[in-house]
Structure formats: structure tokens, C-alpha cells
């Protein structure tokens, strides 16, 4: 399918395309209610509650007023719906703003102001600097002098799709301009919607895709919601409670029917009819179903949504996660997965721009076999090089020329007269700047004419073709014509592996390869520069082919690559540049801390192996000898790879028992083979290995690796900064984007975007951990309080003839979950068990979150037991204290309810680790609020509770009963907590104690210096055992210290062929 | 940087960069709340505090328990079960037939006052194994009908005692229908002892829940007669026995106020009770008891609170003791870093 866009011809394109109205909204005014309801009812829990609410309408079985379920249900639906509506309204507002923005269009030669939403396909849009591009445009001209303004023609382009990397179109202009000459267009000729125009005074383009059909609009999809491990666990527990509820209902239902037939029939005052309707047997079980329906807290979803929103806000508010340089705050695009941050087990990180600054500095070079900059580490100050330049050595000058012009850099003269380079690639920027410092100044680009200033002498080149960089080719070239002598030259730069094979026969590339190797070992990024003079005929012949390839609509990229190959051969290799990419601040510390926290790191990079390893070493990714050991997997053929993989696996298996830091290194090619043919082995390797370095990997391989780890049930976090990380980020459980220099693609696709890598530490250890702890408490507590009141109802049914009478009145039941018990627990979201400093000092504490030790079936059983115990306490005390003449139904109900509320307050208070004003306010204020509310209810004459609360509060026995309930309910729990806290303390407890006894740093500072602080056991069985199994143990294990310094340093074990191999085969280097 | 360049080399990507950073460069506002740095009190469970807490609890609870127990002991209570004895020996084989028959149901009981009883002395009847809290029973009433005449027809909830041949019953429902109707006439030393039956119901019930102009209608005129009958000429708000009965009890054993004796009874006084044993508890083995009781500040005679307080106080004291001993015998330094070992041993651990 193709689309024909007739430039400047409204009639022709009107019927086939929509206008430029953008719409990101999910709902319209009309479909909001049906659609939102549909969406909410697609959740199982909501369906369940609706069923319960409907059952309650049947007055025969409802134990209480139907309002007690409908009220909360409607409240909760209203809260969710308002949140949706609010979000959608904001989307609508921002759309509206974008749609009504004024833009200039050129029509019949006249500039007109119209609203952005009225742009039609085929219109010519005129933009000024810093304007946002309103729709996808094909660029026609800019303020650059060479701009030409086309007026009429047709663009043949594919139908709208979401691939932002591809736009294979042709433009044909109508006579009389250029006679039917097909002009090929690529993505480089387009301006995509929502980009900003920079560095150009104006630009104009013809709109090809509008409205929701733009590339951006097509990309925008409803992202599949990510489910956190915690949510899954909560769902599981809910399921268990559901089953428990069904069992209870069945047991009570049977008991009720039996009691009815044996006892109730004798009780004349109940008047059971002799003849029963067919559904008689169902009535009692259904009543119990309704009574027990509160077992599953209806408010848990809303509470969780609320607190999750707050977690996300805390991340965004955190001033310590603001990049001071750019003032960029962290941003949580996905508000629902903060708890997962605390449960991360694997971090997959990109290297460039993520670990490093992506601030490239030219450091060294090797020209014609001579190393410059080796002594002082800065070639720019190397007198030898400076001498070579002044003496006019041909190689050096050619080298500098390639550095200066073999790129897509645009020099711009600023107002002060300085030259500023606009480069899309940091490497090119570094090279051009370095060339300028070495007196080869790229001063201006005038259409296709380049101006170089060398030692005060102007050299002009005409650019004939640019052979673009692609990640497959791993090199780029330009064809220029020397204006002085008319010679046509091909200048190339690229990865050694893609340049060296094309070297001219006879040229010794060995020294070059060694130089590359040498630089890579220093962690520098290398580029090989090459040069070839072309014959005029050769160029012309090739040029035709190139043009042809450029206008192909199918497989264009591949065809172009093929054609480029024809030209890039017989190159004269000039030398190697080495660029330093500095590590970001705090990277080694961050990685060390997170590794201590038990998080495994995988580095996925496109860099060459040695560079990657050097970076890995310098940022604590892998330990240096003798602790560290690197295992290399490589090979060109399947057999090689398989053999190598086997060997590594074997070593891995045997060394798991040793306290060694074993990492494997694999390159993209071997990875491809391993994934294709030895997936099982590789998965095992992935499980065994804590650290891995994958070099030369493609974006899709990155995503595949994430997929493999996820398939082993690990929680993965992917962090990256560039477009090539987007797939991995989207694939991972948590995607973190660095809003860095490489653009915001990664940050936009990510769940969280942070300014610097080091914020990751805080994101995980502080925000992730707190979120996990808080949600663990909140969810279990929600179940606890619901179970508590439900157990009381169940007990009561045993003394009310198993007939399904509710002890509590409808108002209380309705208000219990929504008002009485929700406020204090919501404030628990600002609870902190340990201070941030302590967590940072003892990152190992994250184990508790990773292993899910705060929310799992056994902790849940604890809460279940607690609610059972409390229900017994409240029930037994109430029915005994309010026996005989006091056993009035309403009063007894309120006494039991107040007992529950008092216990709630104390349970929350006991589980709170840090009391702030808010906590006190909510816990005790809530208790006061309970009485205020009930006094209000008691003042309404028509309510069933009329005067009840006043009567109760004036009785000493009521207050005595409350104290007794609190004392009997909390005493044992408090004692148990103290016992555990003191005699069976968890690590968290110890740190809490240390922190609050004062001098935590003094007493605990030495822990980190103890030789074996972490030893994460990696036997696959123990890792894959259910998460709630204790992963920590108290007893030290000194026997494993046997590994001594005597063991040889096996950096590259037996497979090592990196340094020893003479054959230069593998090596990757890409731009 | 393999394909980074590929992506960043497309012009839009680069330019998108600065746009978004512009929109996001809003620095978050600093406040103690947003930084989660509100000043907080972080208590820890030091042995001293814990032991002290338990001691304080026991010091409060034990005296409270003693006081409650004394209060309960001060209450003088005479309980007389009469459901069995009031059935003549020949009729005991089939008590249900007796109670449903028409023979004379009067019965004489003698009570001896064990201790001086100060007025007011409450006269209760106690029913056991009677489920006023049964789901079918407890809902079978119409509050609006009781409150005002115009809602006379609101009898939906009252089934099966809702109407008689289409005419609504006032008061409708099973609760009213099964009104307790044993009566007691008390005399002390052959002098009649006045039992005041006014003011036995809650004031709020008399004034707001039961209408002053609502009169019984069609009551106990159905096929089966349940419990007591009502004087059709007295408004519901004056029918205090009904009002008391309709405050349903939450437990199967309960007492309801019958009246008050407003004079003291001396130790050794004999009280003769002439009662009419009308109410059928025999079909479901329910017990009937007549109770004369004084009250204390805590209510009637009920040792539970006192015993429970003593128990909880005792346990707390015991815990305080145990924790003290544990602390002395095996002191543990809180926050001792030697417990902080991060080793993971497969199969190890507690």
C-alpha cells in the first residue's frame, strides 16, 4: 500500500487522510461511563463485588442493608473513575493546546496562520526555530542557503506505520521544475511530529502524515500494564482467602441447614414454615456468603492505587535525584510498579551514556604506526604530533582531514564569532574538536562545500556523497572532491573490524590492530580512519548505482549497504583514534552498593570486548584478580561456540562453591549462535552467573537477554539511555531510562527516567525498598482488618442459631472498611523502618525485599493468625462482659466494633516504625473520628443506632471492656514482637536497634570492611526455590574461605586467546 | 555505542531531546513531606521499656480487676429457675401439652433474701436457649410502623406475622408476636411487694421509637397465638413490656427487665412469688428464671470482667518477670553487629 501526497493540493488528498487533530484521550464525554465501567468490571474482584451487591438486593438473604456493599462499591468506583476522568481530562487539555496551536502554512505562495488541527496532508508547513513540528513533514527547505522551494509534485510514500526509523518514499516533481525526476526520500528528509526545530532559522515541509497517523501517533499505543511481583502475590493471597471463604460458607451453610432442621423447627417463635420453596437449602449458605464477603477487602485496590501514586510522587519529588547539571528531576511514568524496584534481582545496563558520561574526549591516536599521546595521555599536547603537523607529514594531514570532515557535523558561527559544532554523534564531535585544536579547523559548510582552515590556509572540499553510518555497516564514508586539484577522495571511518578487512592489499594492518587492541585495553573507544583516491570514472559509475539504490522502496537499507561496499575497498588505513568516554560520577560506588545488595549486573554493550571489560573493571562491575574470573565464550562456528559454552558452564558449576566473582563474557555473534542452538545451556549459564558482559550486541539481542532472565522468573531492570535500549527497556520488568545526551527515546519508553546512573542506587534502595515494605504492610493489614470483622461475624453465627445474623449494623459494616480503618493505614506510606543512610550503608538489607520476605504466605499466615486471635479476644470479652441484662443487640454490636477499632489503632501503632505528626494524627485522630461519627449516627432518631453510643459511653463497663480488649489483644502480640525483636532479630531489627541506640556508624562501620561481607550463594536450586524461603542465614561459614591467594590469576582462563592470539580475527568496533 | 548513532543521527530524535528536558526541568519543590523527612520518633523495644510497660499494665489491671470483682460481689442476686417446678408433676411427661392447654398456670415460689438488698432492686426474667438473635426473628419487625400511625401498612419485613386476612397487625412481626407473658406477683411477709413497671424501657424508645398514638391492632388474632396480648387501649409507647421485649438480645441467654422494687429487702426476708407460667419454652428446652438483683457501678453480677482483668494483669506481670529474668540471664546487646552477618549458606540458617 502506498499513499500519494499531492503537494499543495487540498482536493487531491482530502478524502484519503484525516485532518491533523491529535487525540490521546481514552474516552469521550459520551462513552466515558460505559467504557470506564466496562474497564473496571473486567477485573475479577469487581465482578465479584458486583455479584455480592446484587445478591444483597434479595432481602431474604441479605444480613444487612444492601447499602453496606453498594455504598463502598460505588465509592470505590467513583474514586477510580474520577482518577481516570482526571487523567483523561488532562490529556484532552494538552491535546487541545497542541491542536489549537497556530502554525504557518504556505498556500499558493501566501503564508497563512491556521490552527495545527486544520493541517491537511499535502499542505506546506512553515516553521521557525524552536517551533514544535505539528505533524510528520517531508523537509523541503530550510534557512540554509541551499534551500530550494518546490511548489508542486507528488510524494509516493508508504501508508502510515509506527517505524520511526524508516520512511522510504519518492518524490516526483511536476513540470516545469525538474522533469519527472524521481527523488528519493528517507527518514532523514522528514521532520517528525513533536520534535522541535533547532539551529535553523526556518524550515518548511510538506505534511505527509497527520493527526493520529503520524509516526508518533502510531507508536502511541496503550502499553500493557506491568504487574509487579507484589501484585501477583496479593492476587494469590486474595485467591487463597477466596477459597477459604468458600469453605467457610459451605461449612456454615451445611451447619445452618442442619441446625435449622434439628433445632429451629422446635422454636415456635421463629415459625419456620413446613413447606419450603425449592431454594430453601441455598438461603443460609448464600447469607453466609454475603456475611463473609467482607473477608476480601473491597478497598484494597483503591488503597493500593493511592499509595502507589504517592510512591511515584515521592520519586519525582526527591531532590536528591535531580540532575544538578540540567535540573532534570526524576520522573515516574509508570506509577504502578514502585514495589518491583525493591525486588530487582538483575540489572541489565547499557554502557555508553549510561555508565559513562557520553562526553567524548579525544585522547590518543596512532598514525602510520606511531603512537601519539601515550606519554601524557593526551595526544593534543603531544609535541611529537604537533611537530609532525607543522612539518606537514602527509599521513598526519590526511588523518586530520578525515577527522575534520568525514562526518555529518555542521559548524555554526555563533554571534561571538566562535565556531560551534552541531553534531549528532558525540564521537564525531570529539574528533572535529580535536582536529580543530590540531590546527585543522572545520570552519564552514556551505551547501555541499566544506571549508577547512589549516594553518591559516583555506582548503575547500565539495561533498559528493555521504555513505551513512548504520549499525550493520559499522562505518561511514564521505566522497569529496578537492576543489584545488579536482581529485575525488573517499574518506572512511569506522570500527576496526569493518575497516581493516577492506585495507589495500599489501598494507600491514598488524600495527593498526595492535594499536586498537592497546587502546581498547585502556578502555578507550577506537575508530580506524582510512582514505582512498577515486578515479573519476569509477566514481561516476558507482554514483549511478548509488542513486538507484537510494530510490528503491523495498529493502533500501540493505541495497545501499551493498552499493557502498562496492566503493569501500582498497582503503589506505591512516591510523586509529582513541576517544575517552568518562565514567559518570558515582558509577563504581553505585554498582558496588547494588551488587552488595545482591543485585546481579549484566552489561550489554555494543562496544568491543576489551573496552567493555576495562570499563567493567573500572566501575566495580567485576572484581580484579584474584577474586575475579572472566570466562570467555566465543567462536565463529556453532561447534566453537558450543564447545566454549560447555567449558564455561563446567567451570561455572565447579566454582559456584567458591567465593569467586565469576563473570562470563560473550559477544554478539556467539550469543546469536548460543541462543539459537544452545538455549538451554545458555539459560543455565544465565542462572549460574551473577555477572555477564555481552559485547557487540544488537538492540534485539538485548531484549532477548532480558527475556531469558525473565523466563527464569527473575525480576529484571533494564537501564539505558539511547534508542538502541528502548526494546530492552520495554521488555524488562522495570525499564529505567537515563535522560541524557542521547535524546529521550529511552527515557520516554521507560517506566522511570532518571538524570544520572548513580540515582539508580537511591531509586532501588530507598524508593523501591520503602515502597515494598509499605505495600507489604498495607496489603496484609487490609486483609487483617477485614478478616477480623469477618471472624467475629462467623463466631456470632454460632450463638445465633447459625442463621446468618449480622452482629454489626449496616452503617458500621459500610463505614468499617472505607472510613474507620483506611486512614491510619494510608499514612503508613510515610513510615520508614530504617533511615536512608542506614540502608545505603547496609544495602544487603535489600535481601528482605528481593526474597519477598515481608509479604509471602507465611507472613500472611501471621496476620491471619493475628486476626483470628483478635477476633476471639473481642468476641469472647464482648459476649461475657455484655451478658444477661446487657446483651442488647445494637449495644453488643457496637461494643464489638469499638473493640475492633481500638485494636486496629494499636496494631497500626505497633507496626509503625517511625511516628511523625501525621501518624499520630491519623491513628489517634481516627479513633476520635470513630466516636464522633458514631455520636452523629446515634443522634439520628430514625437510625437503628439511636442513642446507643451515648448510652455506651456513659457506662463505665464499656470503657473497662475496651481497656480489657486492648490489654488482652495487644499484650501477647507485643510480648511476641519484643521476644522476636530481641532474641530472634531480623537484620532489619538489628539495624533499627543500632541506628537508634546511637552511633550506628561507629558500631557498624566495620562491617563493610570485614572481608566477606556478601557471598551470595548461587547454587541454582537455592535461588530458584520459592521466594519466601529464608535466603539469609545467620551462621557464618568460614570453611569457604579456603580459596587462597595462591590460586593463579585466571583472568581469561584457558580459553583466553585475547592477548595471546596472534591472529586478528574478532574485534568489534563500531562508531 | 553500536547503533546509538543510528538513532541519534535521525534529526528528530536529537531535537526531541531538548524539548522534553525543557518541559521536565521543573525542579521538585522541597518540603519535609516530599522528601519523606518529617521529624519522626522512632521508638525501639528496649528491655527496660518493655518490662516497664508490662509492669505498668499489670499495676493498672490487677487493682482494676480487684475493684471490678468487688463490685460484682457487692451485687446481691436471687435467681430462681421455675420452668420445671411450675409444671405439676403429672403434667411433666408432656410439658408442651400442658403449657398449650387451658389448665390453671399459676404457681407459687418462695425466695429467701441472702443479704440485705438496697433499692432499687431489679426484677428480671431470664430466658435461656432462646434465640432472639435468629436471623428470621430479629428482622421480623417494622420500626416505621411502631413509630407512627401512618406507616401502619409497612409490614413487608414482618412475615409471617404481617397481617390477618389482609388487615395489618400492629405491632407486626415475630418479635412482638412472641411477647413474653409470664407474670409475677411478689409479696414480702404476706405484704404485697410493689413492683414498679413504669420506666423499665429505655426513655429514647418510649419517646421516639414507639409512637404515642400507635395502638395495637389485630394483635394475636391470627391462627396461632404466640405470646402475650396487648391492651388495645394503651398506646405502644406505654406498653413497656413490649418495648423491653423488642430490644432483641444478642445472646441466647438473656435477662429482660420486668420491674423495679423500690424498697430495701433485709437479709432473711422471704418473698412469695405468685407467677403465671404462660410462656412456652418447653418445646425447645428453654429455661425460665426469675431474677432479683441489685446493681453496682459496673452493672449486674458478673465476675467475668474482674477475673479477666486479674488474668491479663497477672499475665503481664508474669511477662515482665520473664523478660527481666531473660534479660539478666542472657543479656543481648541491642543492635549488636555480630549478629549482622550477611552470609547465605545453602541449607543453613535457622
From TrEMBL, chain B:
<feature type="transmembrane region" description="Helical">
    <location>
        <begin position="307"/>
        <end position="329"/>
    </location>
</feature>
<feature type="transmembrane region" description="Helical">
    <location>
        <begin position="49"/>
        <end position="71"/>
    </location>
</feature>
<keyword id="KW-0812">Transmembrane</keyword>
<feature type="compositionally biased region" description="Low complexity">
    <location>
        <begin position="1"/>
        <end position="21"/>
    </location>
</feature>
<dbReference type="InterPro" id="IPR005045">
    <property type="entry name" value="CDC50/LEM3_fam"/>
</dbReference>
<keyword id="KW-1133">Transmembrane helix</keyword>
<comment type="similarity">
    <text>Belongs to the CDC50/LEM3 family.</text>
</comment>
<feature type="region of interest" description="Disordered">
    <location>
        <begin position="1"/>
        <end position="31"/>
    </location>
</feature>
<dbReference type="Pfam" id="PF03381">
    <property type="entry name" value="CDC50"/>
</dbReference>
<protein>
    <recommendedName>
        <fullName>ALA-interacting subunit</fullName>
    </recommendedName>
</protein>
<keyword id="KW-0472">Membrane</keyword>
Amino acid at each position: 500500500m502506498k499513499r500519494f501526497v499531492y503537494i499543495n493540493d487540498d482536493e487531491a488528498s482530502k478524502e484519503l487522510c484525516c485532518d491533523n487533530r491529535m487525540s490521546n484521550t481514552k474516552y469521550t464525554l459520551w462513552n466515558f461511563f460505559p467504557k470506564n465501567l466496562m474497564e473496571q468490571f473486567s477485573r475479577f474482584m469487581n465482578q465479584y463485588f458486583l455479584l455480592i451487591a446484587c445478591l444483597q438486593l434479595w432481602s431474604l438473604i441479605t444480613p444487612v442493608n444492601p447499602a453496606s456493599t453498594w455504598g463502598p462499591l460505588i465509592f470505590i468506583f467513583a474514586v477510580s473513575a474520577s482518577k481516570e476522568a482526571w487523567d483523561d481530562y488532562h490529556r484532552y487539555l494538552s491535546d487541545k493546546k497542541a491542536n489549537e496551536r497556530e502554525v504557518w502554512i504556505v498556500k499558493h505562495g501566501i503564508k497563512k496562520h491556521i490552527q495545527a488541527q486544520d493541517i491537511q496532508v499535502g499542505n506546506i508547513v512553515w516553521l521557525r526555530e524552536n517551533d514544535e513540528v505539528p505533524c510528520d513533514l517531508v523537509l523541503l527547505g530550510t534557512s540554509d542557503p541551499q534551500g530550494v522551494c518546490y511548489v508542486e509534485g507528488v510524494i509516493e510514500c508508504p501508508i502510515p506505520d509506527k517505524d520511526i526509523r524508516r520512511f522510504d518514499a519518492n518524490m516526483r516533481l511536476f513540470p516545469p521544475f525538474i522533469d519527472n525526476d524521481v527523488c528519493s526520500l528517507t527518514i532523514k528528509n522528514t521532520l517528525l511530529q513533536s520534535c522541535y526545530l533547532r539551529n535553523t532559522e526556518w524550515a518548511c515541509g510538506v505534511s505527509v502524515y497527520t493527526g493520529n497517523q503520524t509516526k508518533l501517533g502510531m507508536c502511541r499505543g496503550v502499553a500493557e500494564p506491568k504487574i509487579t511481583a507484589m501484585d501477583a502475590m496479593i492476587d494469590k493471597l486474595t485467591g487463597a482467602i477466596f477459597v477459604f471463604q468458600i469453605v467457610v460458607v459451605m461449612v456454615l451453610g451445611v451447619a445452618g441447614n442442619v441446625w435449622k432442621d434439628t433445632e429451629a423447627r422446635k422454636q415456635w417463635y421463629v415459625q419456620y414454615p413446613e413447606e419450603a420453596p425449592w431454594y430453601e437449602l441455598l438461603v443460609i449458605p448464600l447469607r453466609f456468603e454475603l456475611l463473609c464477603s467482607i473477608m476480601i477487602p473491597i478497598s484494597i485496590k483503591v488503597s493500593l492505587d493511592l499509595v502507589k501514586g504517592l510512591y511515584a510522587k515521592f520519586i519525582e519529588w526527591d531532590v536528591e535525584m535531580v540532575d544538578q547539571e540540567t535540573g532534570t528531576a526524576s520522573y515516574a511514568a509508570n506509577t504502578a510498579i514502585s514495589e518491583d524496584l525493591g525486588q530487582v534481582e538483575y540489572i541489565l545496563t547499557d554502557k555508553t551514556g549510561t555508565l559513562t558520561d557520553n562526553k567524548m574526549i579525544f585522547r590518543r591516536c596512532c598514525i602510520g604506526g606511531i603512537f601519539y599521546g601515550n606519554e601524557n595521555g593526551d595526544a593534543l599536547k603531544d609535541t611529537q604530533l604537533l611537530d609532525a603537523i607543522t612539518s606537514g607529514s602527509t599521513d598526519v594531514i590526511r588523518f586530520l582531514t578525515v577527522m575534520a570532515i568525514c562526518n555529518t557535523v555542521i559548524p555554526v558561527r555563533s554571534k561571538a564569532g566562535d565556531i560551534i559544532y552541531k553534531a549528532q554523534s558525540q564521537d564525531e564531535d570529539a574528533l572535529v574538536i580535536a582536529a580543530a585544536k590540531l590546527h585543522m579547523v572545520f570552519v564552514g559548510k556551505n551547501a555541499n562545500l566544506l571549508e577547512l582552515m589549516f594553518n591559516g590556509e583555506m582548503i575547500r572540499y565539495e561533498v559528493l556523497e555521504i555513505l551513512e553510518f548504520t549499525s550493520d555497516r559499522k562505518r561511514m564514508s564521505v566522497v569529496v572532491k578537492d576543489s584545488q586539484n579536482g581529485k575525488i577522495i573517499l574518506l572512511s571511518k569506522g570500527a576496526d573490524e569493518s575497516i581493516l578487512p577492506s585495507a589495500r592489499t599489501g598494507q600491514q594492518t598488524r600495527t593498526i590492530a595492535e594499536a586498537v587492541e592497546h587502546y581498547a585495553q585502556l578502555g578507550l573507544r577506537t575508530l580506524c580512519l582510512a582514505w582512498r583516491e577515486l578515479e573519476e570514472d569509477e566514481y561516476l559509475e558507482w554514483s549511478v548505482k548509488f542513486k538507484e539504490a537510494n530510490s528503491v522502496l523495498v529493502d533500501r537499507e540493505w541495497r545501499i549497504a551493498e552499493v557502498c561496499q562496492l566503493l569501500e575497498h582498497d582503503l589506505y588505513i591512516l591510523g586509529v583514534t582513541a576517544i575517552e568516554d568518562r565514567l559518570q560520577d558515582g558509577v563504581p560506588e553505585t554498582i558496588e552498593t547494588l551488587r552488595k545488595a545482591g543485585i546481579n549486573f549484566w552489561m550489554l554493550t555494543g562496544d568491543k570486548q576489551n573496552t567493555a571489560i576495562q570499563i567493567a573493571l573500572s566501575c566495580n562491575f567485576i572484581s580484579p584478580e584474584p577474586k575475579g574470573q572472566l570466562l570467555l565464550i566465543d567462536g565463529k562456528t556453532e561447534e566453537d561456540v558450543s564447545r566454549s559454552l560447555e567449558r564455561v558452564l563446567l567451570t561455572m558449576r565447579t566454582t559456584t562453591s567458591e567465593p569467586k566473582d565469576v563473570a562470563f563474557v560473550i559477544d554478539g555473534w556467539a550469543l546469536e549462535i548460543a541462543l539459537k542452538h544452545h538455549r538451554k545451556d545458555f539459560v543455565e549459564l544465565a542462572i549460574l552467573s551473577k555477572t555477564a558482559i555481552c559485547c557487540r550486541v544488537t538492540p534485539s539481542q538485548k531484549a532477548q537477554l532480558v527475556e531469558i532472565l525473565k523466563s527464569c522468573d527473575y525480576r529484571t531492570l533494564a537501564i539505558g539511555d539511547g534508542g538502541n535500549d528502548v526494546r530492552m527497556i520495554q521488555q524488562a520488568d522495570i525499564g529505567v531510562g537515563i535522560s541524557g545526551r542521547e535524546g529521550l527515546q529511552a527515557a520516554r519508553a521507560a517506566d522511570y527516567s532518571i538524570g544520572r546512573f548513580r540515582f539508580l542506587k537511591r531509586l532501588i534502595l530507598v524508593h523501591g525498598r520503602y515502597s515494598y515494605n509499605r505495600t507489604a504492610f498495607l496489603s496484609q493489614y487490609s486483609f487483617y482488618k477485614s478478616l477480623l470483622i469477618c471472624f467475629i461475624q462467623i463466631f456470632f453465627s454460632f450463638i445465633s442459631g447459625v442463621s446468618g445474623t449480622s452482629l454489626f449494623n449496616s452503617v458500621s459494616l459500610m463505614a468499617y472498611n472505607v472510613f474507620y480503618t483506611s486512614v491510619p493505614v494510608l499514612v503508613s506510606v510515610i513510615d520508614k523502618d530504617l533511615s536512608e543512610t542506614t540502608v545505603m550503608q547496609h544495602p544487603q538489607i535489600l535481601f528482605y525485599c528481593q526474597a519477598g520476605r515481608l509479604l509471602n504466605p507465611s507472613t500472611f499466615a501471621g496476620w491471619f493468625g493475628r486476626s483470628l486471635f483478635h477476633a476471639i479476644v473481642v468476641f469472647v470479652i464482648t459476649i461475657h462482659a455484655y451478658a444477661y441484662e446487657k446483651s442488647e443487640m445494637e449495644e453488643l454490636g457496637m461494643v464489638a466494633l469499638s473493640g475492633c477499632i481500638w485494636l486496629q489503632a494499636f496494631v497500626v501503632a505497633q507496626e509503625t516504625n517511625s511516628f511523625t505528626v501525621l501518624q499520630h494524627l491519623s491513628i489517634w485522630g481516627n479513633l476520635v473520628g470513630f466516636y464522633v461519627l458514631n455520636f452523629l449516627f446515634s443522634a439520628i432518631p430514625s437510625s437503628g443506632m439511636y442513642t446507643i453510643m451515648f448510652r455506651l459511653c456513659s457506662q463505665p463497663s464499656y470503657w473497662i471492656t475496651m481497656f480489657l480488649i486492648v490489654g488482652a489483644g495487644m499484650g501477647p502480640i507485643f510480648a511476641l514482637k519484643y521476644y522476636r525483636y530481641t532474641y530472634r532479630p531480623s537484620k532489619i531489627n538489628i539495624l533499627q536497634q543500632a541506628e537508634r541506640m546511637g552511633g550506628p556508624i561507629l558500631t557498624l562501620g566495620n562491617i563493610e570492611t570485614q572481608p566477606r561481607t556478601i557471598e551470595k550463594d548461587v547454587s541454582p536450586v537455592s535461588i530458584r526455590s520459592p521466594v519466601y524461603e529464608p535466603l539469609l542465614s545467620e551462621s557464618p561459614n568460614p570453611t569457604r574461605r579456603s580459596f587462597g591467594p595462591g590460586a593463579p590469576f585466571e583472568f581469561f582462563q584457558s580459553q583466553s586467546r585475547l592477548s595471546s592470539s596472534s591472529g586478528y580475527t574478532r574485534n568489534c568496533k563500531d562508531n | 555505542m553500536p547503533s546509538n548513532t543510528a538513532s541519534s543521527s535521525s534529526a528528530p530524535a536529537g531535537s526531541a531531546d531538548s524539548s522534553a528536558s525543557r518541559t521536565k526541568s521543573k525542579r521538585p519543590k522541597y518540603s519535609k513531606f516530599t522528601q519523606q523527612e518529617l521529624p519522626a520518633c522512632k521508638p525501639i523495644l528496649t528491655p527496660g521499656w518493655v518490662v516497664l510497660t508490662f509492669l505498668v499494665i499489670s499495676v493498672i489491671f490487677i487493682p482494676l480487676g480487684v475493684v471490678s470483682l468487688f463490685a460484682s460481689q457487692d451485687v446481691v442476686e436471687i435467681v430462681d429457675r421455675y420452668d420445671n417446678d411450675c409444671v405439676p408433676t403429672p403434667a411433666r411427661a408432656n410439658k408442651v401439652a400442658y403449657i398449650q392447654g387451658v389448665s390453671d398456670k399459676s404457681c407459687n415460689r418462695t425466695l429467701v433474701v441472702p443479704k440485705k438488698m438496697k433499692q432499687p432492686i431489679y426484677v428480671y426474667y431470664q430466658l435461656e436457649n432462646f434465640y432472639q438473635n435468629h436471623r428470621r426473628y430479629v428482622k421480623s419487625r417494622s420500626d416505621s410502623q411502631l413509630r407512627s400511625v401512618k406507616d401502619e401498612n409497612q409490614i413487608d419485613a414482618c412475615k409471617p406475622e404481617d397481617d390477618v386476612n389482609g388487615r395489618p397487625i400492629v405491632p407486626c412481626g415475630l418479635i412482638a408476636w412472641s411477647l413474653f407473658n409470664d407474670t409475677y406477683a411478689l409479696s414480702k411477709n404476706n405484704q404485697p411487694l410493689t413492683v414498679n413497671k413504669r420506666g423499665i424501657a429505655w426513655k429514647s424508645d418510649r419517646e421516639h421509637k414507639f409512637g404515642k398514638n400507635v395502638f395495637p391492632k389485630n394483635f394475636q388474632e391470627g391462627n396461632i397465638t404466640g405470646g402475650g396480648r396487648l391492651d388495645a387501649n394503651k398506646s405502644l409507647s406505654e406498653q413497656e413490656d413490649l418495648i423491653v421485649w423488642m430490644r432483641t438480645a444478642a445472646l441466647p441467654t438473656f435477662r429482660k427487665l420486668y420491674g423495679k422494687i423500690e424498697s430495701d429487702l433485709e437479709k432473711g426476708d422471704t418473698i412469695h412469688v405468685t407467677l403465671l407460667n404462660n410462656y412456652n419454652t418447653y418445646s425447645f428446652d428453654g429455661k425460665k428464671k426469675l431474677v432479683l438483683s441489685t446493681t453496682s457501678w459496673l452493672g449486674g453480677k458478673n465476675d467475668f470482667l474482674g477475673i479477666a482483668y486479674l488474668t491479663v494483669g497477672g499475665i503481664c506481670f508474669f511477662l515482665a518477670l520473664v523478660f527481666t529474668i531473660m534479660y539478666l540471664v542472657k543479656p543481648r546487646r541491642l543492635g549488636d553487629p555480630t549478629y549482622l552477618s550477611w552470609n547465605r549458606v545453602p541449607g543453613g540458617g535457622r
